[in-house]
Write a structure and sequence with these properties.
elongated
Length: about 140
């Protein structure tokens, strides 16, 4: 449970916790009331997904348990899964940085569709964090 909290949950919640700490400091007017969505709206969570993919690939190659499973093709599928999501997350993070989503959404626009880069990055976090957790506990 400790590994999951430190490795998976803490990196996801740390920016929000830091935003709460920033509110204690008197900031100049443009930054006086930062919104939580500002931290994540342009695909910044994809960096976490890339980290989970890299860590999952490392555990696959470094664990002696996966050497036994290598010939059963499970390792190949897991490696392909992580590499595929690594590429997808890096493309979304790059395009999110280049084409930023405006903070104010138009009237009648669905929140999920307006912040679709954020929505995709959340889905990537669940997919990669789940797979990394599976690999971590399978390697033990």
């Amino acid at each position: 449970m400790g590994w999951f909290l430190v490795t998976i949950v803490l990196p996801c919640l740390a920016p929000a916790a830091l935003l709460l700490l920033i509110r204690v400091v008197p900031l100049p007017e443009p930054w006086a009331n930062p919104r939580l969505i500002t931290l994540f709206k342009d695909g910044q969570l994809c960096w976490l997904a890339m980290g989970y993919c890299a860590s999952g690939l490392y555990e696959i190659t470094a664990s002696p348990r996966f050497v036994e499973l290598f010939y059963a093709n499970r390792v190949g599928y897991l490696s392909t899964y992580f590499i595929g999501f690594l590429v997808i997350a890096s493309v979304i993070a790059t395009f999110g940085a280049l084409f930023q989503t405006p903070l104010e959404r138009p009237p009648k626009a669905l929140w999920v569709l307006h912040f679709r880069t954020f929505s995709c990055s959340v889905l990537l976090i669940f997919a990669t964090a789940g797979a990394y957790t599976y690999v971590h506990f399978l390697a033990k």
